[in-house]
Amino acid sequence: MATDNQPKSATLRELAQMVGGRVEGDPETPVASAWPPEDCDRDSITLVDRTESLPRLAGCPAAAVVAPLDGPATGRPTIRVASVHKAFAAIVRHFRPDTTRRISGIHPTAVAPPSAEFGRDVSIGAGAVIGEHVVLADGVTIGAGCVVGDGCRVGESTWLASRVTLYPGTLVGERCRLHSGAVIGADGFGYRQEAGRHVLAPQLGTVEIGDDVDVGANTCIDRGVYGPTRIGDGAKIDNLVQIGHNCRIGRHNLLCSQVGIAGSTTTGDYVVMAGQVGVRDHVHIGKGAVLSAMAGVSNDVPDGEVMLGAPATPLREQKLKFAAIAKLPQLRKEFRELKRQVARLQAAVTGAGQAGDEPSVQAEEKRAA
Amino acid sequence: MATDNQPKSATLRELAQMVGGRVEGDPETPVASAWPPEDCDRDSITLVDRTESLPRLAGCPAAAVVAPLDGPATGRPTIRVASVHKAFAAIVRHFRPDTTRRISGIHPTAVAPPSAEFGRDVSIGAGAVIGEHVVLADGVTIGAGCVVGDGCRVGESTWLASRVTLYPGTLVGERCRLHSGAVIGADGFGYRQEAGRHVLAPQLGTVEIGDDVDVGANTCIDRGVYGPTRIGDGAKIDNLVQIGHNCRIGRHNLLCSQVGIAGSTTTGDYVVMAGQVGVRDHVHIGKGAVLSAMAGVSNDVPDGEVMLGAPATPLREQKLKFAAIAKLPQLRKEFRELKRQVARLQAAVTGAGQAGDEPSVQAEEKRAA
Amino acid sequence: MATDNQPKSATLRELAQMVGGRVEGDPETPVASAWPPEDCDRDSITLVDRTESLPRLAGCPAAAVVAPLDGPATGRPTIRVASVHKAFAAIVRHFRPDTTRRISGIHPTAVAPPSAEFGRDVSIGAGAVIGEHVVLADGVTIGAGCVVGDGCRVGESTWLASRVTLYPGTLVGERCRLHSGAVIGADGFGYRQEAGRHVLAPQLGTVEIGDDVDVGANTCIDRGVYGPTRIGDGAKIDNLVQIGHNCRIGRHNLLCSQVGIAGSTTTGDYVVMAGQVGVRDHVHIGKGAVLSAMAGVSNDVPDGEVMLGAPATPLREQKLKFAAIAKLPQLRKEFRELKRQVARLQAAVTGAGQAGDEPSVQAEEKRAA
Question: Does residue A111 belong to the interface with chain B, where contact is any CB pair within 8 Å?
Fold first, then answer.
């Protein structure tokens, strides 16, 4: 599965030195690849990040393990480190250098007009198309096949993977990562009806993305009507998310895959939306609120509230509702039983002549009416 | 935030003249940008479209305002007009010319074979790829990076933004707008099982899009099995929508973001589907029906019906259900109370010896069984 | 609607010979196109695959029909065959040759480095970009505008439609079809919080797609954290699907449009997920399980189970719940009636002085508290 043609075998000692770890067992153990336990060969090093993960080593042919300083015995040569993931990531990168962002210079097939301004160390991939008056700051990488519209500005060290679209006038901050297929700045979905036809309302705004924002693959963020649609600093947006025109997404939001947010909705800082959440237009999601997977939100949500279900309801309340629904068939059964009991009781109290008046029959009559 | 290098400052008088408005206050007020109230600088003009929006001006540094003819005082220099949005849109375009569709001519890096036929004023962006026998009518714009398959025909004045795919044989009407990443004509999702494997059923049809249709970013419309998947004139489709093979979407439908419609489903004219609606295959949604956000529709819907929830239910009925569910925990509490009351009553009527026979105990026994 | 410039008229006899069928009626009937009943002209041939479909012929101007060997009379010249769809598909292809995969050779505008290795009959479309050390096996077709990252390997006869992205290190098996806009190998959505910021966890793995896998338009499959995200042989994935990092999708799964599967979730063989299903992270969906449309799954699902609703519940149980919910407003009405009856009964038994103690009043008091 190597994606590189030069084997980079190393001894456990060399790897431990690289990550500042302590060797347990034979330091001359040769290692040629790094994978999670399920994917190892006999020449692999793998990881155990906590005691509960030890069973994943059973049956794993790995030659060595990266494990926490004070963790349990692994039964094979081990590198002990304070941060398992930091160390293992470094080892993985050693064996499989990550070339995802590796482009250097401006590819001869890229298209860019003289009016575009590039900082130092700007890289542009094959076939990318840069518009008039675009400004790319130092260290910006634009992947193959991207289309960056007129007047866009992209901040320092930001990376557009391949095939990203920025419509004209889009602003992107520093250190952002935009994944393949993302579309930033398409028209919002606003129409007025005129003589039986839907006529597009003005869609003349832009999109402004803050610093340290990640945008997932095939995600769409629409331009504002007159002003910007805004994504706050540090927000992380997953794949296939839709953000409507005029939205103002707060800082450090986490928006999981397939979330949809309709126009003009705003969120406070540190909002979390789990997968497939839907939020209607013109509402506000308060700071630190959490919308659980598939929640359907059509009203403002207070700061810090956790919402569940569709229509979305505060967590505790919704759980009571779900529990009550789960027991509803049983409740109906018990209810019919109680009605019969009451009918019998009534008959006992008022005499047999009243028996035809029992509630279940009344109910049937009402239903038929 | 200017996306253009030439400042286009104007006086209020000049702007009023441009939009046919009446000046209130100093006609020489200089204006250099146009934004909604939340995004203004001191040299901006902004808008108030109705009395209720006046509070948005509080704290806004704008130099001037566009407001309705008979609206309330705005407290600053104002242009009075009959249609605020029409006038403000024109002013925004003056300060920030919209270059979204600005391509002229056929870019030297575009690829097109001699068999393709182009009308007058056809523009094709950088890197776009045009197939054999493609016909592009007068005034068609094909954005950068689009792929237009063999035999496609695109009607007058239609615009494909960048990175749109038309599979071979796709027909697109006049005055359509297809946004970036849209994929028209991929194979439908139809398989038959053969010896434990899923085998793709024939997917040999096309897609036919009517006139005045908008298709959102990253939206997918699959080709029919043998014939066309059809989108009616005037339909407007938002981002990330899925329309399955053989669907026939009526005229002037509004399909909001992330809607999914399975194969062979048909809709009448003027159907509205709000965000994240799902519709199963082979059903018909009647003329003028409205499917509320996240509705899950698995049956035909009559003309004009409003559906809510999953499974989708007529609005009034679903609201009763939602209300009943919201009060269900309370109902359970009351039910337990009533059972106790009936048990006491029964004991009073028939004597203490019967107390062990009370319904709640019966219920527990049933549950355990 | 022809997508080809050469008319290919044929007689019914010629078509019957082509598909090994038996002619009923005039064998010299001329035919010039093939469409489903709703889209025919007078020179078309159409199909009737079973008796129930006969009404679709009413009003259809088609000159001829393809019908089953032992089917009912069609009232017009007919080709009788054992497999209607196989025969009709061949006839459709005769009149409208499917050029979807027709690329031959390596287009001069495609970009590929000397380190890439190509088998026999490899075709690469205009503007496609191939990375370092990429290996394309015999008969691979890479569509226009695709971006194939460093170190990717693509198996025999696999087809990437236009504008597909493979991030570096992606492995794709044999005979796969990846539709336009698909993004394979973007970063997973995993963050840890550090000093109030979300910091991307290592995303250093790959994606491994088995043999005979179909991937729909604009679908996203994220790379694993350290190892591969895996798609099993024969899996068929529709448009706009999201598959999170580290997922292991079993063989022959059917994942319909807009399904979302969060990270590290695994599925057995032959799992079916209908449209818009959501599955949380770190769960297992058992072999042969079926998740109905819009199901929201947050727990393991046993082999063969059919799940419905959100939260997902076994089919039978969920149907009881839905039925109970549908009758809930009626239940509430009957419950109030029963309470009144019990109150009257209680009054009759214990005397009028107890009337103020009736349950509905207690309930109201509780509600107010």
Answer: yes
Residues C328-355, mean pLDDT to the nearest whole number: 82
Is pLDDT of B357 > 60?
A: no
Taking the Cβ of residue C127 and every Cβ of chain A, the question of whether any pair is shorter than 8 Å is answered with yes
- The 10 Å Cβ neighbour count of residue B195 is 5
Of the candidates C168, C181, C226, the beta carbon closest to that of A99 is on C168
Q: Which residues of C touch A342 (CB under 8 A)?
A: 338, 341-342, 345
Asked if residue C118 has pLDDT above 70, the reply is yes
In chain A, which residues have their Cβ closer than 8 Å to the Cβ of C325? 325, 328
**CB within 8 Å of C260: residues ≥ 6 apart:** A240, A257, A258, A275, A276, C241, C242, C277, C278, C279
Q: What is the dihedral of CA A172, A176, A178, A183, to 10 degrees?
A: -20
Q: Which helix (H) or strand (E) holds C325?
A: helix C315-326
ipTM for the complex shown: 0.91
Name subunits touching C (3+ CB pairs < 8 A).
A, B
Measured over the CA atoms of residue C114, residue C118, residue C123 and residue C127, the dihedral's sign is negative
Q: Percent of chain B having pLDDT more than 90?
A: 83
Q: Which of residues 244-273 of B touch C (CB under 8 A)?
A: 244, 258, 260, 262
User: Is the previous residue joined to C114 through a cis bond, with omega within 30 degrees of 0?
Assistant: no
| CA–CA distance, C185 with A161 (Å, rounded to integer) | 11
Quote the pLDDT of residue B99.
79
Tokens of A283: 């509402």
Per-residue pLDDT tens over the stretch B107-124: 999 999 999 999 999 999
Give chain C's mean pLDDT.
Answer: 92
Q: Taking CB atoms and an 8 Å limit, are B252 and A198 in contact across chains?
A: yes
pLDDT at C311 > cutoff 50: yes
Q: Is B4 on the interface with A (CB under 8 A)?
A: yes
Specify the CATH superfamily of domain A10-95. MurE/MurF, N-terminal domain (3.40.1390.10)
For testing contact with chain A, the best of C338, C342, C346 (most A CBs within 10 A): C338
Interchain CB contacts (distance < 8 Å): A and B = 217
> Which of C177, C217, C258 is closest, CB to CB, to B260?
C258
C251-265 confidence digits (pLDDT tens) = 999 999 999 999 999
Interface of B with C in 61-100 (CB under 8 A): none
Q: Mark whether A282 is an active-site residue.
A: no
Q: Which residue of A has its CA nearest to C320?
A: A329
Helix (H) or strand (E) holding B364: helix B359-368
Nearest CA in chain B to A322: B325
List phi, psi (to 5°) of A16: -65, -40
CATH number of the C117-317 domain: 2.160.10.10
CA distances from B159 to B26, B140, B146, B148, B285 (A): 42, 6, 11, 12, 29
Q: Chain C residue closest to B149 (CA)? A: C100
Model confidence at C359: pLDDT above 60: no
Taking an 8 Å cut-off on Cβ atoms, the answer to whether A275 and C280 are in contact is yes
Q: Which of residues 290-319 of B touch A (CB under 8 A)?
A: 293-294, 309-310
Residue C4, pLDDT above cutoff 50:
no
* pLDDT grade for B153, boundaries at 50, 70 and 90: very high
CB C150 within 8 A of CB A3: yes
Asked if A2 reaches chain B (Cβ–Cβ under 8 Å), the answer is: no
pLDDT digits 0-9 by tens, C21-65: 999 999 999 999 999 999 999 999 999 998 888 999 999 999 999
Question: Strand, coil or helix: what is B326?
Answer: helix
**Cβ separation A3–C168 shorter than 8 A:** yes
List pLDDT tens digits, range B46-75.
999 988 889 999 999 999 999 999 888 999
